[in-house]
Amino acid sequence: MIKAVCFDLDDTLGHYASDFGEFVAFVRNELGLHQCDTNVFAKLVSDELRRDGPLTFELILRRVLDGLQQRAPADLAELASSAMASYAADYRPLPGAAELLSDLDSRGVKLALLTNGPDDMQRAALRALGFERHFRAILVSGDRDVAARKPAPRIFGLAVTALEVLPEEAVMVGDDLDTDIGGALDYGLAAIHVGPPTGPVPAAAGQAADLAAVRLLLSGLLGG
Ligand SMILES: [Mg+2]
Fold it and tell me: CA-to-CA distance for 201 and 105, rounded, in angstroms?
C-alpha cells in the first residue's frame, strides 16, 4: 500500500522558463570573463553542476574561476546570490503541479522532494514555486547533510527514513529515467515516469504524459 510520494523538481514540478544559456552568459559577464568563450564557460558550469558532494552556486563559480586560473572577485558571494535570485525569478510551476500537491497533501499523503543540484539553486527554485509547505522532507543533493545525487541509494534512504515509510510504501515521480526511475526502482520504491521518455520506460514503472495523468495513476495506487 502506497503512503508516500517522492517528487523530482526540475521538469517534473517546475522548470526554468527562460533560456539557461543566456543565464549562464549573463553570469559570465557579471564575472568579467568577457575573454572566455561562452560555450567553454557554459561547459565548465554544466560539468560543475553535476559534481557530487556538497554544492552551492557560489562553489561552482569558485571552481570554474579556479579552472580558468582567474582570481575570484571579492563580492563572489553576492554575485552568486543575485544570480540565484535572477534564476528563481524565471522558475515556473508545470501545469497541474500546485493542484496535485494540494490534493495529495489534503488526503494526508506524505510528500518528499528529491532534487539533484546546488543547494541554494534548488531551494531558490522551490521557494519561487511556493511548494515547500507541502513537503515533510526536502532533500537536495548539494545540501551538505545529503551530499548524494539520485540515483544513489543514500538519497532514497534518507527520504523513506524522513517520511517514516518502507521503500515499498513510496512512489517516486520524475522525468529522468536513470536518476528518478532507475534509482527509485533499485531502492525498492514504485515509480512513475512523467513526460516524454528519452528511452524505454522500465516495465515496473508507470508512464504519464503530464501531471494530470500522474494524478490519475496515483489515485489508483492510493486507493481512490
Ligand atoms: Mg528532473
Answer: 28
Residue 122 alpha carbon to ligand 1 centre in Å: 11
Tell me how far the alpha carbon of residue 20 lies from the centroid of ligand 1, in angstroms.
15
CB 169 within 8 A of CB 196: no
Question: Tens digit of pLDDT per residue, the chain (224 long)?
Answer: 899 999 999 999 999 999 999 999 999 999 999 989 999 999 999 999 999 999 999 999 999 999 999 999 999 999 999 999 999 999 999 999 999 999 999 999 999 999 999 999 999 999 999 999 999 999 999 999 999 999 999 999 999 999 999 999 999 999 999 999 999 999 999 999 999 999 999 999 999 999 999 999 999 999 75
Å from CA of 74 to ligand 1 middle: 33
- Whole-number Å distance between alpha carbons of 204 and 11: 21
